């Protein structure tokens, strides 16, 4: 039987400790790993932000956050209190060289300090360079230090390179962990197993058999309190440049020669570099941008983007659909449709692989093409649509049905949140599921012309009702090629 993973005690310092990500994701993820006995007794979690809070204030906020964001069944007050004793807080402006660095220095230079030190940057990316300069000047970057950088790295290729250069001045690449939490999702990792451990799929995995591929990440939430950040970013930077392109890499890459970090990342990089550059004409015909508007559903008022932002106008997209193409022999002629949006009809992230129709049919009606649905979330699983004989009709009648595996009940396990495994990988020093610098550059190189084209007004901002599947133009994007979005199970 596989032994549970053990870790040496570590210091986990979070810049941006009072923010949304820390409260909703990072502390709950660390708490779950505490329940799983992966957080040794001497480990310390040190929150840092500018707000003037005491340790007790911060623990109080952490307690409230845990009680809100962990599952009800796991809200064990005793365990929560034990976990909170590991938490400290320092009030510090990480960008200010003259800030109160002594408080963090005292903690990290004390007798209780642990050799492995993780600095997690859960702040705006423009601060990463300054924080690193200060950590370096204060000699807090030891040989066992790793930094975790949240996405998006920059807002363009140039700003990403600036950030990576500044962080890279102080740390070697293998100590820089650029996180993309979609790679922490079990079902995204499962794409490797599905493809490379099942020859039945890998042999069909090319333009010979596949007609088109859809990758959707739809959310029902709006921008909420993150409007300040989001309005300057938009869905293309927030979701496509990172999460959707990473998923696309996992679906489209050739088999890596091993599961070592560089072999895997080399293959992902090849996909990013093979993306067909978007010309102005392609941007016009192959991209859709939308923004949600107010709606009433079941007597409930769903606010529009502008209402949430409390603004009269904004040119920011909350929805994107793109037809991407990959210039390789494996994928030539196969469209990859990427779609993401806020305030859509359902919370769902999934990949749909539509296989080609058979050219010839034995049956009076042509069989429906097979479709493989990979459900990333929720209800992680896989289903394959199939044609069977319709048992209620004549022997020449077909009916569509599917083989479905729902992973959680199948394996009797709790599906961990994507941050849990990634945080512990950073502690372990395993960069396999983190983004290498050249991947960030390649992703921005493909995205940037779209951003520029949109800034020039090449594609109008369409509207879609909150709670819908996005603007009509997104359906037309596929309809032009005789394709449709598959929102439901086959
Ligand atoms: N929220 C999410 O769902 C996701 C967020 N991310 C990324 O994570 C990062 C953080 O996002 P989010 O938590 O939403 O942002 P928030 O705006 O909620 O939080 C920002 C945090 O940074 C702190 N901060 C700001 N300036 C400084 C400074 N100079 N020194 C120290 N701390 C500072 C703020 O606290 P104070 O004002 O007290 O200093 C606050 O704790 C961003 O890069 C975002 O793109 C990525 C994926 C998802
Ligand atoms: O990185 C981000 O991801 C979330 C969506 O993540 P998911 O795991 O819930 O699919 C998104 O809400 C946020 O805007 C974005 O920054």
UniProtKB/TrEMBL annotation:
Pathway: Carbohydrate degradation; pentose phosphate pathway; D-ribulose 5-phosphate from D-glucose 6-phosphate (oxidative stage): step 1/3
Catalytic activity: D-glucose 6-phosphate + NADP(+) = 6-phospho-D-glucono-1,5-lactone + NADPH + H(+)
Catalytic residues of the enzyme: 243 (proton acceptor)
One Gene Ontology cellular component: cytosol
EC category: oxidoreductase
Protein residues bound to NADP(+): 50, 151
Residue span(s) of domain Glucose-6-phosphate dehydrogenase NAD-binding: 13-190
GO biological process: one example: pentose-phosphate shunt, oxidative branch
Pfam family, one: G6PD_N
Molecular-function annotations in GO: glucose-6-phosphate dehydrogenase activity; NADP binding
Keyword Phosphoprotein appears in the UniProt entry: no
Function: Catalyzes the oxidation of glucose 6-phosphate to 6-phosphogluconolactone.
Name of the protein: Glucose-6-phosphate 1-dehydrogenase
Organism of origin: Commensalibacter intestini
Gene designation: zwf
């Amino acid at each position: 039987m596989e032994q549970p993973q053990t870790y040496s005690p570590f210091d986990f310092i979070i810049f941006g400790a009072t923010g949304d990500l820390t409260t909703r994701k990072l502390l709950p993820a660390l708490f779950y790993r505490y329940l799983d006995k992966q957080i040794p007794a001497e480990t310390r979690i040190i929150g840092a932000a500018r707000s003037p809070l005491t340790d007790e204030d911060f623990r109080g906020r952490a307690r409230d956050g845990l009680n809100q964001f962990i599952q009800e069944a796991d809200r064990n007050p005793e365990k929560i209190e034990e976990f909170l004793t590991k938490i400290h807080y320092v009030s510090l402006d990480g960008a200010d060289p003259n800030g109160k660095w002594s408080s963090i220095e005292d903690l990290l230079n004390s007798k209780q300090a642990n050799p492995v030190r993780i600095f997690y940057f859960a702040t705006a990316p423009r601060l990463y360079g300054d924080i690193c300069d200060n950590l370096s000047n204060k000699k807090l970057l030891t040989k066992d230090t790793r930094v975790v950088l949240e996405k998006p790295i920059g807002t363009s290729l140039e700003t990403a390179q600036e950030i990576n250069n500044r962080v890279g001045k102080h740390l070697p690449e293998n100590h820089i962990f650029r996180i993309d939490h979609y790679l922490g999702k079990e079902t995204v990792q499962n794409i490797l197993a599905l493809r490379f451990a099942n020859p039945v799929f890998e042999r069909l995995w090319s333009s010979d058999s596949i007609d088109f591929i859809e990758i959707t990440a739809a959310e029902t939430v709006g921008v909420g309190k993150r409007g300040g950040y989001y309005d300057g970013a938009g869905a293309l930077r927030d979701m496509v440049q990172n999460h959707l392109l990473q998923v696309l890499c996992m679906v489209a890459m050739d088999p890596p020669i091993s599961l070592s970090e560089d072999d895997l990342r080399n293959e992902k990089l090849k996909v990013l570099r093979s993306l067909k550059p978007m010309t102005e004409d392609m941007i016009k015909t192959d991209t859709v941008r939308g923004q949600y508007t107010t709606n009433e559903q079941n007597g409930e008022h769903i606010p529009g983007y502008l209402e949430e932002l409390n603004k009269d106008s904004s040119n920011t997209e909350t929805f994107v659909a793109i037809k991407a193409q990959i210039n390789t022999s494996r994928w030539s002629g196969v469209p990859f449709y990427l779609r993401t949006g806020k305030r859509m009809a359902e919370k769902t992230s999934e990949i749909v692989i539509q296989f080609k129709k058979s050219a010839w049919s034995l049956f009076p009606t042509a069989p429906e093409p097979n479709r493989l649905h990979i459900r990333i979330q929720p209800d992680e699983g896989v289903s394959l649509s199939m044609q069977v004989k319709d048992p209620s009709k004549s022997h020449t009648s077909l009916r569509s049905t599917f083989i479905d595996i729902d992973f959680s009940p199948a394996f009797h396990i709790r599906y961990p949140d994507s941050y849990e495994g990634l945080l512990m990988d950073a502690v372990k020093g395993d960069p396999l599921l983190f983004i290498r610098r050249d991947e960030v550059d390649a992703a921005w190189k493909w995205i940037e012309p779209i951003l520029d084209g949109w800034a020039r007004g090449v594609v109008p901002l369409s509207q879609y009702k909150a709670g819908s599947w996005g603007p009509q133009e997104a359906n037309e994007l596929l309809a032009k090629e005789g394709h449709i979005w598959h929102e439901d199970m086959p």
